[in-house]
Here is the input.
Amino acid sequence: MKDIELFNDHFQNWKRYLNCKAQLIIADVPYNLGNNAYASNPKWYVDGDNANGESELAGKQFFDTDANFKPAEFMHFCSNLLIKEPKEKGKSPCMIIFCAFEQMMYFIELGQRYGFQHYIPLVFVKNYSPQVLKANMKIVGNGEYGLLLYRDKLPKFNNNGRMIFNCMDYPRDTKTPKIHPTQKSVPLLDKLIRLYTDPGDVVIDPCAGSGTTLLAARQCGRRAYGFEIKKDFYADAVNLLETYNPPMSMFDVVELDKKRAKGRLQHKQDTLFSDES
Here is the structure.
């Protein structure tokens, strides 16, 4: 089995393909928006400008599979896809779901039904909003919502003993080719994967879409597997994974800057001591 692999199948068939389970599950679940899917998207209008009138996407749904998504079935399979909770502290697995605000309480309740007794609500704040095109909206949305779900013990958390706010920035991804209408930012996924896994750990995305979860996991040195039932998205995601070499992640850039700053400080101290001698 490869370290990074995407399967054109439903996640409920995971036993056909995988001989391992996940330390971290990341999933951008269908929001069940129906024919209002593009309501907060510039594509509702011709050329993204409401002065041009509505486009052919106005009143259309993202995917014909949205209506078939069964959240309870999804949570059942995800509970089986995670590794068992180990006895050691700081090693437990977890699950991160991107979802609509209106879905949060439902997924919290489902999580508790399927063994995820604890949760942390997440808000990802963007520095932009597609809703500005809606002339009738005075307060526009610039956030995405999610949930961190875990069983009993706190999950693995790699942040050098420092806390992280549950309301965090959503780094805009201007580098990765856009192949999916709800594609998630590789820098954001990179950050989440590094926080909750170690190199070599397994990350699984049951609703892989564009494959950016696998892309981020690869640049983090993790094993990653995804499931995508739509053939067109699957083909585009496979092509992305095979042809696109992402630039250095934002996380790596920050760490590199820290190392450089530390190096400059050390050089300054060495020079100071040298002058004193």
In short: Residues 147 and 264 are 40 Å apart (CA to CA). The chain has one domain: 4-32+69-246. The radius of gyration is 21 Å.
